[in-house]
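Lab notebook, bench 4. The sequencing result for the construct came back, and we need a structural model before the next group meeting so we can plan mutations. Quick request posted to the team channel:

Model the 3D structure of this chain.
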Amino acid sequence: MIQNDINNLAIIIPAYKSTFWDKALESIANQTNKNFTLYIGNDASPYDLYSAVKKYEDKINIKYHRFEDNLGGKDLVAQWERCVALSQTEEWVWLFSDDDEMESTCVEKFYEQLRLHNNNAYDVYHFNVKIIDEKSNIRTVPSIYPKVIQSFDFYKEKMNGKIRSLVVENIFSRSIYNKMNGFQNFDLAWGSDTATWVKFGQQKGIFTIDTAWVKWRISSENISPDCNSSIISRKIKALNSYFSWSYSFFSDNKSALMYVNCKTYISRMRDFYKYVSNQDVWSSVEVFIENYKFKFWLKYLLIFLICLNNKKING
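Done. Here's the predicted structure in token form:
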């Protein structure tokens, strides 16, 4: 094909892991439209990532930078942001990963949509996702998105488990990134991706490109949750911050938000509470209910529903 699109897309990879690194790079190098720059921010990885990068330097435009300190282990969202800062004047940004893949026509289909939308482009362009295994075989295909979904509907569907939302399947405008002060940062990046897409899509909604797919990998490296009590305590606090943020962000939808958030909070806490102390659970509930009316009975109802049919492992 004749490539007459301006090189206006920055693909960003905050890199650390090496297991599927070559697969990720290969999928990017195989794009039918190569009008993009790949920016790689090596997060002081102990692995040799550059050897794989060298294989593709004559195939696509790559800017590689190794950071001397590991930031992702302390603040993952800050690592995302310093990698975005490596990019230059591209109007569009795609935060990708070091172990997932994109179909070969993703960039081509993205530019096609930009041309169709002309001066009325969306701020977020989304690809539907296929779940792949360690051998890149497709294991499942989650629910596809509607052509356009508004932020509050996206939030509700995600909280109700009807759609899957990750990090790697969205391209966003640099203008909305700057306007909304970057990614939404919660500890451990817990909920940061969902909150970010919510605020980036607030004005125009999220547009799905349904003619190409992103392949998100599930492997032994990302299916084993860390159940250390200190990590779970941090996740609980991040969960509270996430719901407090949503309550403020969706201030015009508080009634509908209460049901969605309470239901999701109970589900998440039922996964967490057996790993932490009773005081951690009570403290979390106290923080959560601050945004809602009927605090007295809501507190005890939440505790009851969280603990229902579950055996406490430690107190």
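The CA atoms of residues 77 and 189 lie 6 Å apart.
Will bring this to the meeting.
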